[in-house]
Amino acid sequence: MAKVAWDYIVPIVMPKDLKGVTPGKLPESLLRPIPGGGKLHHRAADAWNAMVAKAKADGVELKPTSSGDLYRTYENQLAGFKQRYVLEPVAGTSTKTFEGKTWYLKKGMAMLATPR
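Predicted structure:
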């Protein structure tokens, strides 16, 4: 019988070194730089680098479009969120709840996750 997509799904296992660590507040010791700028958790960095090497061997260049596409500290996420969302209502736009308040996406801006 032929394999189907879900036969290749591998269960996600939280790395032990992330247990109890708050997202956006990873210790620097857990992060590794990524060529082109930015950082990732060391296990994610290893996987990224392996994928980039395989793609390069196949003639494809992979790179983050910006360091914001990689690990963001809480402070960076908060700054990006506040650049994109405002407390004043904006008609016809999406909203997020953050700090117990409704935030409105500014017109022309891409959505961004709330800091946590």
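Summary: The CA atoms of residues 52 and 60 lie 8 Å apart.
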